[in-house]
Specification:
Elements (H helix, E strand, L loop, with lengths): L1 H14 L19 E5 L14 E6 L14 E3 L17 E6 L14 E6 L14 E3 L17 E3 L17 E3 L56 H5 L47
Parallel strand pairs: 1-2, 2-3, 3-4, 4-5, 5-6, 6-7, 7-8
């Protein structure tokens, strides 16, 4: 109860323009640090200046942060389920073990965002700017990424199952142990991307651009690539296909012999940890 009251007081101070920990509008940012804990469900922080704020073990589910300035903010073990970050500025922000499931980041500025064990499942990042992000063990299942820009991103153990990434841009990005199964990537661009060991089977890829993409040992078994652009025979020669793989006219694939060994990075999506077990009773 006390932590909830503290969080609410902090939120109230922000909304009234006091005790923000930063300079007022028109002044230069001050390198003070504001930390948020406790609960502030459905808080209205739209348009607020929250540069460099730290949200630790806090519950801001369903909060409104549209147009907020969150440059360099840190989220650790934070819950922002169903929150609205549309058009907010999260450049240089970072998140670890945090839950943004169902949250909206439509047209948000997220260049340089650093996310580890972050859950964006079921959210909306349509047309978000995610250039040069570093994402590890991130859950994008059933997430709307249509038109998002993930150029030059580093994606490791990322799950795009069921995601809608139509028209998204992944130019010059690096994919490590990434799953695309069931995702929609029609007319997405993978120009110059490193898709080594990526699993593309089951993804919808019609109209996607793979010009100069690295497909070394990529798993294309069962993938429908008949309608993609930019593929060459040399790229296909480096990948693994099977009898169910569909390729553009004139290209022929080869089946990999033996089991296809793919690297594996354990997924670490944000969940509330279970309480520790009670201590064992000492022997009598």
């Amino acid at each position: 109860m006390l932590t909830r009251m503290c969080a609410l007081l902090l939120c109230s101070a922000l909304m009234m323009g006091g005790a923000t920990g930063h300079a007022r509008a028109g002044d230069r940012d001050v390198a003070r640090r504001v930390a948020f804990g406790g609960a502030c469900v459905k808080c209205d922080l739209a348009g607020r200046k929250l540069v460099g704020c730290a949200f630790t073990a806090s519950n801001f589910s369903e909060a409104t942060l549209t147009g907020a300035d969150l440059r360099g903010a840190e989220f650790h073990a934070a819950n922002f389920r169903n929150a609205d970050f549309s058009r907010s500025d999260l450049r240089g922000a970072s998140a670890a073990a945090s839950n943004f499931s169902g949250a909206r980041f439509v047209e948000a500025q997220m260049e340089g965002f650093d996310g580890k064990a972050v859950n964006f499942s079921g959210g909306n990042l349509g047309h978000a700017h995610l250039r040069a992000t570093d994402l590890v063990a991130v859950d994008f299942r059933r997430t709307d990424l249509a038109g998002a820009d993930l150029s030059e991103a580093n994606l490791t153990a990322v799950d795009f199952q069921g995601a809608d990434a139509r028209g998204a841009v992944f130019n010059d990005s690096e994919f490590h142990d990434v799953t695309f199964h069931g995702g929609r990537f029609e007319h997405a661009s993978f120009r110059g991307a490193d898709l080594e060991h990526a699993r593309l089977a089951g993804a919808l890829l019609s109209g996607a651009d793979f010009t100069d993409a690295d497909l070394t040992r990529a798993d294309l078994r069962g993938a429908d690539l008949a309608g993609v652009h930019g593929l060459t025979q040399e790229q296909i020669d480096d990948a693994c296909v099977d009898g169910a793989t569909r390729l553009p006219a004139g290209l022929r694939g080869r089946e990999c012999r033996g089991a296809l060994m793919l690297p594996h990075v354990a997924m670490g999506f944000a969940v509330h940890p279970a309480p520790p077990p009670p201590p064992a009773q000492p022997p009598r």
